Amino acid sequence: MPYMLGYHPAFMLSNTSKDILIANDKKITLKDVYKVGHNAFPVLNTEKIVLQNT
Fold it and tell me: Are 30 and 39 within 8 A, CB to CB?
């Protein structure tokens, strides 16, 4: 089943906005997710997503 990342202003992961998601050795920043605008950011062909708080 496809998994997509979106954003919602009510869900803040940290107060730094420097969190990084790692999927298939690809680093995805909050800025990357914002760039897709109202669309969701697709994360394809992965079984694991890691949230790294920097």
Answer: no
DSSP 1-54: --EEE---TT--S-SSS--EEEETTEEEEHHHHHHTTTS-EEE-S-S--EEE--
* Per-residue model confidence as pLDDT tens digits over 1-53: 556 666 565 566 677 778 888 999 999 887 888 888 767 788 888 899 898 88
Enclosing domain of residue 41:
3-52
Domain count, the chain: 1
Backbone angles phi, psi at 4, to 5 degrees: -130, 145
Residue 43: both structure tokens together: 């994360």
pTM: 0.65
